[in-house]
Amino acid sequence: MNTPAPLPLAIVHGEAINNAPASLYIPPAALRIMLNQFEGPLDLLLFLVRKHKFDILNIPMALLCRQYVAYVEEIIDEDLELAADYLNMSALLVEIKTKMLLPRPPSEENDDENDPRADLVQRLLEYERIRQVAHEVSTLPRRERDFISPQVPVELPLSTEKPHVQSGQLAAALKAILLRNKSAIGTLQLVREIISVREVMSHLLRRLTSGLRLNFQTICLPAQGGVTFLALLQLALERLVHLQQEDNDELYIELRNKQS
Amino acid sequence: MNQPPVNTDNNQKNIIELALLTAGQPLDIRALKRILDDNTDSSVIKTIVQELQQDWEPRALQLIETASGFQFTSRPEYIEYIRRLNPQRPQRLSRSLLEVLAVIAYRQPVTRGDIEQIRGIAVSSNHIAFLEEQCWIEEVGRRETPGRPVLYATSNTFLDDLGLTSLNDLPQLLDTEDDSMEEDITSPDTNNKADTHNERQI
Question: Which B-chain residues 25-54 have CB contacts (< 8 A) with chain A?
Fold first, then answer.
């Protein structure tokens, strides 16, 4: 080492990298940064094929797999699914390589259909097409981002008319509820009813799919109130319904994926 | 009650313009027919809409046709001024979200598994939830395979929001690069010896 060291090719974590990666070697830290820019192993493989004119037959599998495994070990605690995707791709590449190394019967030698790479090539092509159109779709004018739809507000007199309620009706309704509850308690017939929360969830969903907005009061009958309440919470948790409290304190339920 | 103006050839255009400006949603020919008079010919309505499109040509609003019908929208070149009124910027769509959307749009109906197969990576539940919240995709059924996975397709709202009338209006999928890819991936025969040599080393 008498000659002055040439400028390093790159410095990673303070360490100079002098030799251009002879093959696929990428220092682990750099690899991590690099891989963050890729949408998974297929995207990375496509990049390698396109950028470095890689030939799938020529990919140094041992090296590539060692890289993948090193990366997998680094991310396995954070992103198990991504780690699995990279492992899966490594396994696929090794499988292809294995098949390529095995001699093929002479009758199949020029048969493209049995080329072990064919399937992967098709997947890469399909992914490349999707990647391309995804970019093109993102450039199309889009509502909210590029344009909006105006609406001239028109107040129809009919829609502003308040419903008529008389205080007597309210009193009668309350009396009916009290009477119902009293009779239920008075007879003391406690029948254990098994109501599946899931069943009530489906029942509610079916009622809601017709575009109905349900009033919480009317669906939580005393007999099954608890189960209905649990079902509602579960539906809200699974983002299937939308709970909304109006100005009049009434709670309404409607389907979440309905356009408002 | 005011007497509505008699439906004459002259005010048909006014009625359609009024309907489109106040509806707050796209209106198709059938809806416009119902508003005018069920006996009006579809071709008459189409001509009126075309006239309206010309009338609005020099304005900041345009009358376009999308999957759900006709609607007024602001012209994209004016969006900057709408932003000044309402500084809320819409959410930027990530590359992975766009790819998921593209797979559903171009390969529908697809299951999550199909999307994962094409992209080689797991699909985030957030992406599917976001696309459903936008009403851009919807469940259209289930594939009768083990697990009966949900099949997704894009909705009319998706087309409306991109100003398209049908999926055919989406950018074309390119096939031109197939040949170059085949060359990149499959090695020419002349390299076979070197390849075998490399493989032995590994």
Answer: none
